[in-house]
Specification:
single chain; mainly alpha; three-stranded antiparallel sheet; 3 helices; 43% helix; globular; binds zinc ion
Length: 127
């Protein structure tokens, strides 16, 4: 019998999987990038242990942590797939602190995809 997995561990595991899926979708899941995700999950583990009610917020927070870390090392991520013209720009996570995080483009004013579903957002969405 496996030990029961706590909701907290489930939330951390899900956050890790969602952000990795988005990194893979955008083809930046190199080994050192994966370690950025691991670093963020480790920090958020501490955070959510102090505040278990925040478990639902972890995916959005990890996505933002990784986005910030990538900005330092690689540049903007993830680039907006919706706007065809103008300067390339990154998507933002909304809500910054809340459940059910999404990638949004503030220039077009649209939700592009749920965090973890960037791979299915190939641009040109008309909704
Ligand atoms: Zn855009």
């Amino acid at each position: 019998m496996d030990d029961p997995v706590s909701p907290l561990e489930q939330a951390l595991h899900a956050a890790r999987a969602l952000v990795l899926a988005d990194l893979i979708a955008r083809e930046v899941a190199e080994a050192d990038v994966v370690s950025l995700v691991e670093d963020s999950v480790a920090q958020r583990r501490w955070w959510v242990e102090q505040w278990p009610e925040g478990a639902a917020y972890v995916a959005g927070l990890v996505a933002q942590d990784v986005q910030d870390a990538l900005l330092d090392r690689y540049g903007r991520w993830p680039l907006c797939p919706v706007c065809g013209a103008g300067d390339p720009h990154a998507l933002d996570v909304e809500p910054e602190l809340g459940p059910d995080p999404h990638w949004v483009c503030h220039q077009a004013g649209v939700k592009v995809a749920a965090v973890g579903s960037l791979g299915s957002a190939s641009g040109g969405m008309t909704s």
